[in-house]
Amino acid sequence: MKDKIAQTFRKLFGSEPILAFAPGRINLIGEHTDYQEGLVFPAAIEQGIWVAIQKNGLSSCRLYSEDYEEEFVFDITSFSPKKGHWANYTMGVISQFQQAGYKFEGFDMAFVGNIPASGLSSSAALSVAIGTALTALFNLTITKKSIVLYAQKAEHLFAGVKCGIMDPYASAFGVKDRALLLDCRTNTHFEVEVDFGDHSLILINSKVKHTLADSAYNKRREACEASVKILQDSFPEATTLRDIQVKDMEKVQQLLPADLFPKAKHVITETERVNLASNALHAGDLTVFGNLLKESHRSLSEDFEVSCVELDFLAEESWKLPGVIGSRMMGGGFGGCTINLVANSEMKNFKATMRAVYKDKFEIEADFIPVALSEGARIL
Ligand code: GAF
């Protein structure tokens, strides 16, 4: 990929590029908690986005997406988002750099990716790769954390998704063979060594992406914010659902209307599950870890309502199989992948059975994606 994008760049723009890479991510547990300042437990994967970049002496930026086989040119001093366009991530990140006071000349950029499914944060990987590349190209003094925050803001303002910090953070800070126990209040993390012994993580790509996922995502966030407003009368210190404990659930139920309570309950219980899961990993207790994955799925499906029939089917069917420690939907939901922890000795049977039952039910050929926890963004 690296050589391919360098070659494309030279051919298109005729200069020698700087190359940057940023990975996609998985998440062990902790879904829809990041924008409520909760805990999440993601890791970077091997697959990601490669960016080739160089100054062009113009006042415009010339972009090329190898995957879309498409060019896009814009003026560096005046640009705005174009609904649904891949160039939004580049423009969004540049606009964040500019707002922070960094000045740019025009540049050329080409990029390519190999992230194999939706729900693995290709957009965050692209934004972080661009931020990393720009920092090197213009020799800027800028921290990784700022790149992460710019990437998140770019997604809010240029793609219209009010995402949390988890995806760009994992892409920027990933470490080989480790997951990041990330506190989305302080935006700091612990690296946790992940060794599942004779078990492996494998994703199943449902190959569905339900429409309106972005607006449903924003609605979930709004529901959490509405709950916090109501709860503040009784919990004056609370600024997010992170501040509410599982032990207060009965009171929370009395205070919240019936449509908001299950959503708040998911976020409150999910942060506790992240804590318990990291303790279980530390203690090497895979059974507890696996049960927490199942509980997380149920909560996302029944309480937070971000699953779909295909993801529910994949999770529930896998729970029945020998050697499956746990499995759940992963990421924002409404499609994408499930994450599964499976005994190596049962992997073949797991894949064959899941492929067959999914095909039989939905007439979709699922993909199976092994994951290796990997390094975060870097200049190559
Ligand atoms: C998406 C968002 F981008 C993340 O911030 C996070 O909220 C996730 O959905 C759900 O945990 O990936």
TrEMBL record:
It is an enzyme of class 2 (transferase). Residues 7-55 form the Galactokinase N-terminal domain. It comes from the Bacteria. GO terms for molecular function: ATP binding; galactokinase activity; metal ion binding. GO terms for biological process: galactose metabolic process. The keyword Secreted does not apply. One of its GO terms (cellular component) is cytosol. Keywords: ATP-binding, Carbohydrate metabolism, Cytoplasm, Galactose metabolism, Kinase, Magnesium, Metal-binding, Nucleotide-binding, Transferase. Belongs to the GHMP kinase family. GalK subfamily. This is Galactokinase. It comes from Algoriphagus aquimarinus. The lineage of its organism: Bacteria, Pseudomonadati, Bacteroidota, Cytophagia, Cytophagales.
